[in-house]
Amino acid sequence: KMRHMDKDHAIKLLGGTVTSAAAAVGVTPSAVTQWPPELPPRLADRVQAALYRIANGIPHPAPATEASAGA
């Protein structure tokens, strides 16, 4: 069984705040606050991609607008 990622752990990995996590993933902080306690695969993949970018010095995407935050 694949291990799941929880929201609090993801935020911790991405800088420890909702704002830092949002910036790393490329969404708004309000989008992060709407994540479920256990991240579905598509969100866990976005967290993993952000961690890869951070580890390899690749700039994160531009912040999303409110209109595209849930994308």
Question: What's the gist of this structure?
Answer:
The chain has helices at residues 7-13, 18-25, 29-33, 41-55.
Beta fraction: under 5%
The total strand number stands at 0
Sketch the topology as an H/E string, one letter per element.
HHHH
Overall geometry: globular
Main sheet makeup: none
Enumerate how many helices there are, as a single number.
4
Instruction: Calculate Rg over CA atoms.
Output: 11 Å
Structural class: mainly alpha
Q: In terms of per-residue confidence, which ranges show pLDDT below 50 for 5 or more consecutive residues?
A: none
Q: Helical percent range?
A: 40-55%
Q: What is the straight-line distance between the termini?
A: 27 Å
Average pLDDT works out at 87
Describe the structure.
There is one protein chain. By secondary structure, the protein is an all-alpha fold. Helix content is 49%, strand content 0%. The protein contains 4 helices and no strands. The radius of gyration is 11 Å and the shape is globular. The mean pLDDT is 87.
